Amino acid sequence: MPKLKTKSSAKKRFRLTATGKVRAGVAFKRHNLRKRSQKMKRNARGTVMLCDADARIVKSYMPYA
Questions:
Q1: What's the CA gap between 9 and 62, in Å, rounded?
Q2: Are 50 and 38 in contact (CB under 8 A)?
Q3: Residue 14: CB partners within 8 Å, gap ≥ 6?
Q4: What is the CATH code for 8-61?
Q5: How far is CA 46 from each of CA 1, 2, 25, 43, 49, rounded to the nearest angstrom?
Q6: pLDDT confidence of residue 6
Q7: In what order do the strands lie in the sheet containing 47-49?
Q8: pLDDT tens per residue across span 8-53
Q9: CA neighbor of 63 nearest in space, from 22, 2, 3, 15
């Protein structure tokens, strides 16, 4: 069987942890930040773990990750 291709957009946006969870950046922090509360901007720093349903979809995009 031929090798499966990884979706390029997924490999740029997500990383897998050693336990198999999917880590992603937090949304809504690129522009228009003057509207956002300081609390929202502070909580949007760093990364978040995706829920199981979303992680299953992302893992299907990255067959060898």
A1: 10
A2: no
A3: 22, 23, 24, 50, 58, 62
A4: 4.10.410.60
A5: 39, 37, 7, 8, 11
A6: 96
A7: 14-16, 22-25, 47-49
A8: 999 999 999 999 999 999 999 999 999 999 999 999 999 999 999 9
A9: 3
* One-letter identity of residue 56: R
- Give domain limits for the chain: 8-61
Checking if the pLDDT of 65 tops 90, the result is no
pTM: 0.82
**Region 48-59 average pLDDT:** 97
Strand residues in the chain grouped as ranges (E): 14-16, 22-25, 47-49
Q: Report d(CA 48, CA 31) in Å as an integer.
A: 19
